[in-house]
Amino acid sequence: MLINGFQKLTILDYPGKVACIVFTPGCNFRCPFCHNASLVTHIDKETFLQVDEVLDYLKKRQGLLDGVVITGGEPLLQDGIEDFIAEIKSLGYCVKLDTNGSFPEKLISIVGKGLVDYVAMDIKNSKEKYGITAGLEKLDVAKIEESVEFLKSGTCPYEFRTTVVRELHTPQDIESMAMWLKGSKQCFLQSFVDSGDLICSGYSGYNKSEMQNLLNIAKNHFESTELRGI
Ligand code: SF4
Predict the structure, then answer these.
(1) pLDDT greater than 90 at residue 119
(2) Which residues contact 216 (CB under 8 A, 6 or more apart)?
(3) What is the dihedral of CA 176, 139, 137, 30, to 10 degrees?
(4) Residue 143's closest CA among 25, 28, 38?
(5) Could you give the dihedral angle defined by the CA atoms of residues 12, 85, 161 and 65, in that order, rounded to the nearest 10 degrees?
(6) pLDDT tens-digit map of 168-205
(7) Is residue 31 within 6 Å of ligand 1 at its C-beta?
(8) Which residue, 16, 57, 92, 161, has most beta carbons within 10 Å?
């Protein structure tokens, strides 16, 4: 289990909870607009934290923090992820898992064991443009579909979320994506913002009124839709 970042406090990243964030290195996707490129492409072992350091911090914050966000990179790439989350749960914390949805077997196993309280899954784009948006043109979307169907079954609270990039998402793509996910609970759209730490350059976001128009296209297909970060 590798950890290469730890944020001690957040009130923004876990809905309704005061939490901390654990970052894991590496990702199997190469989304060109990835805002955490240094976590994905330049794994620096010097920055790794010991699992015990994080668990010790959590022991000291019992009763003060509600939850832990596990994010990446792609956390489900980590071999020891299930045991790590089990340790966090044994300390009484709620756990939110961020994932790109490409490891449905691991997702189903972790949720099935009651180790995760909330899943935020990235939906990169319509099925037709999934590969190009994830930076893997030959990506097999079947794994993503499996994770989508599992979360839609309602075993665990979840959200789908999409970072919308002007150069990658047209209104037709948003419509196609929303029709694919039809009947899902929550969908958040967030406009791309250049973090300065991207895999590729030349990308831009939509403005607020354009995002509102895209949300209007999506909203009939979900129980709840919202813009985030605008
Ligand atoms: S945006 Fe997420 S899924 Fe895409 S490369 Fe970055 S960490 Fe991986």
Answers:
(1) yes
(2) none
(3) 100
(4) 28
(5) -10
(6) 999 999 999 999 999 999 999 999 999 888 888 899 99
(7) yes
(8) 161
